[in-house]
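Renewal narrative, Specific Aim 1. Our central claim is that a sequence can be written position by position from structural information alone. The example that follows is taken directly from our test logs and has not been curated for this report. It begins with the structure tokens describing the chain, in the order in which they were read.
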């Protein structure tokens, strides 16, 4: 039994096993079509799950400052962002790797420090094990469906995916540092004087 976290290579080999393919030692061989497709589905599934905003890939009240052109730039792996805290009233949307001020109709009107909540996409190998497990099982079932015409045949069943999801959600709940005041919607409205919270974009 392996005592190290699951790697991307191991995840792809798990997916290959569901269609009866032998494991590979590298993901770099472009001629191995099944491997390329498996990796693509794994990446797609990981992106989909991470975009929800997990404990491991979320930044809360992260300070950002404009560049010399007055622009607020965000990391290239940022998939959701919104202002929060003392910057709550600044209405921004992400466009590319910059924030756009919807009230001032400008990319270059920012001054001082702003605080944001962000969701960032992480590489598979940087994810916690419970996230890797859920991503791998879900991706494997998608992979099975493409190659076998059914996601109920082969290595993983719907029950397997459900169990992985339950474990994933349990681990997320255990690792979140929930705050009774700010993580409860009704109470948070009072804390921020009745202003409805905008969804993180």
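The sequence written for that structure reads:
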């Amino acid at each position: 039994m392996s005592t190290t976290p699951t790697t991307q290579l191991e995840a792809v080999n798990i997916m290959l096993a569901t269609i009866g393919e032998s494991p590979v030692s590298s993901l770099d061989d472009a001629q191995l079509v099944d491997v390329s497709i498996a990796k693509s589905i794994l990446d797609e599934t990981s992106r989909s799950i991470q975009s929800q905003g997990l404990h491991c890939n979320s930044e809360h009240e992260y300070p950002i400052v404009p560049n010399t052109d007055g622009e607020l730039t965000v990391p290239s792996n940022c998939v959701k962002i919104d202002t929060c805290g003392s910057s709550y009233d600044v209405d921004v949307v992400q466009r590319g790797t910059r924030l756009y001020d919807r009230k001032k109709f400008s990319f270059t009107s920012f001054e001082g420090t702003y605080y944001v909540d962000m969701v960032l996409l992480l590489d598979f190998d940087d994810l916690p094990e419970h996230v890797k497990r859920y991503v791998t099982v879900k991706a494997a079932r998608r992979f099975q469906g493409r190659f076998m015409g059914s996601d109920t045949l082969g290595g993983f069943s719907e029950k397997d995916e459900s169990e992985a999801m339950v474990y994933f959600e349990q681990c997320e709940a255990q690792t979140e540092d929930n705050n009774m005041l700010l993580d409860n919607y009704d109470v948070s409205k009072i804390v921020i004087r009745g202003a409805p919270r905008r969804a993180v974009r």
